[in-house]
Amino acid sequence: xxxxGVRLITVAIxxxxxxxxxxxxxxxxxxxxxxxxxxxxxxxxKMGASFLGLPSRFIMVLHCFVACxxxxxxxxxxxxxxxxxxxxxxxxxxxxxFIRALYLGPxxxxxxxxxxxxxxxxxxxxxxxxxHGFFIVDHDKRWMPLLLAGNWASDGFALFVGKPLGRHKxxxxxxxxxxxEGFLGGCFFGTIVPNLFLLPLHNRDLLPLPDVEPAMYFVxxxxxxxxxxxxxxxxxxxxxxxxxxxxxxxxxxxxGVLDRIDGLFAAAVPFYFLMMYATA
Length: 280
Known about the structure:
The structure is a single chain. The chain is mainly α. Helices cover 78% and strands 3% of the residues. The chain contains nine helices and two strands. A two-stranded antiparallel ribbon has the order 1-2. Strand 1 (169-171) and strand 2 (175-179) form a beta hairpin.
């Protein structure tokens, strides 16, 4: 079976699990998000360990543990409280690496500062951004299908359009295979296809969607589709920085967790604020 077939099988198994749990079992959905945050942070730590020479396994496990605290704190049901927990976690990471620097001596100051900034970026880029999925579900879970469908459609159609039609490189220094044709195809079909799929289900009372003007559905999926493509480029930048091809192999045919949900890192936060604006 070719790589495309493996990718489709993976999507056929994982997508319904995410989609249905976000609507009908938010608790399971949150557990899935937390699991992906942990695995994604582990992938990130492994990429950095091979390039930056990260410290002991204990410090790497500590980074993963701190990454779990942020989504778990969302049960406080307050955006400000979770943001406060994020700040505390960032200060804790600084304290850990500052103490390490004092213990190891001046010749390790630069390395310890690099390790702290590496941990800080991973905490914000992975844990904080994806935790917004918790906020979306808690505020109005009917918005989640728009986010997920827009992300998947943008990601998938960027491949389906870019592979046969791609001629003009989008950003060769980050990702040689990405093209403008794939980028535009992902943005266009990532905006249109989710609505063609979701709206008929909603009109037949088979799928709950938010009570807003239908035009807002297209605005939401358009923003998600564009930001999904940008999020993919950011992850390519991180992999290039650490000289890695894939972040891992958790999802057969797709690579690691970071390879699969990189678009959500960029899309989740703006989508949350769009939801808050639309429902104000």
